[in-house]
Amino acid sequence: MPPKGHEKTVRRSVPGLSSLPRPVYGRTESLPNRALTRRHSHPWVQLSYAISGVLEIQTSVGRFVAPPQRAVWIPAGVPHRVFSSPHTEMRSLYLDCSVTAWAAERCQVLEVSSLLRELIRSFSELPVEYTEDGPDGRLAQVVLDQLAAAPQVDLMLPLPHDVRLRQIYRSLNLHPEQHTTLGDWSGKLGVSEKTLSRLFLSDTGLTFRAWRQRLRLLSALPALEQGERVTDVALGCGYESTSAFINAFRQQFDSTPGEFFR
């Protein structure tokens, strides 16, 4: 979801916290425009979550995408950039490492249940220095319990590291609708198609076809969340028909676009 076309992009500042006021700290922010932050890291865990809009967290490993039913878990010390679609309402959590000993030490996308969504929403309304040994502190603990139980979902696009594959990624990321084949790229980059195919599999764990399909589908999420017509989104992502797009979407997300955002 990097900046595209003529949409206005706002540089968003990184929160200037030297330490957390509480082991579980909630931060709210309204972002009317497409926004991004520079690459940075925190000495604490971050749960990047939005009740509306679509977030994308980019690390050296990949792009982690989170529509409202999902959130991105970012371990302490991991450099990352944050992209957000227009009209994003963030309800992020910052978590001291002392309360997340159970957590994975890698970025991942988590499923946000209806219960967890309402817990985060309620927690974000608490005062910054809430009373830890009262009801507010117990609410924070319930949030942690629900986060520990939240299942991981596959909304991540692995990024290639090979310089030739990076050229392909940059081009398709800006224009996912293009139909350039791996054979076409072979001629442009002066390397055999077989070599490019092998590099994609070893560098990303996916075939070029599967990787490009995932890139297209993840790129479609912000427009779908904004309520754009499925047909327009499908064509804008390079699909020749709405039915082909819906079939690919169902294969990736186990639901149609309408079911996914409902």
Automatic annotation (TrEMBL):
Annotated region (Disordered), positions in chain: 1-26
**Limits of the HTH araC/xylS-type domain:** 166-262
Q: Which domain of life is it from?
A: Bacteria
Statement: the UniProt record of this protein carries the keyword Ligase: no
Output compositional bias ranges, type Basic and acidic residues.
1-10
Checking SMART domains in the record gives: HTH_ARAC
Protein's GO biological process: positive regulation of metabolic process
The name this protein carries in UniProt is AraC-type DNA-binding protein
High-level lineage? Bacteria, Pseudomonadati, Pseudomonadota, Gammaproteobacteria, Pseudomonadales
Q: Keyword Nucleotide-binding, does the record have it?
A: no
Pfam families membership: AraC_binding, HTH_18
Q: Which gene encodes it?
A: ripA_5
Q: Which UniProt keywords apply?
A: Activator, DNA-binding, Repressor, Transcription, Transcription regulation
- Record GO terms (molecular function): DNA-binding transcription factor activity; sequence-specific DNA binding
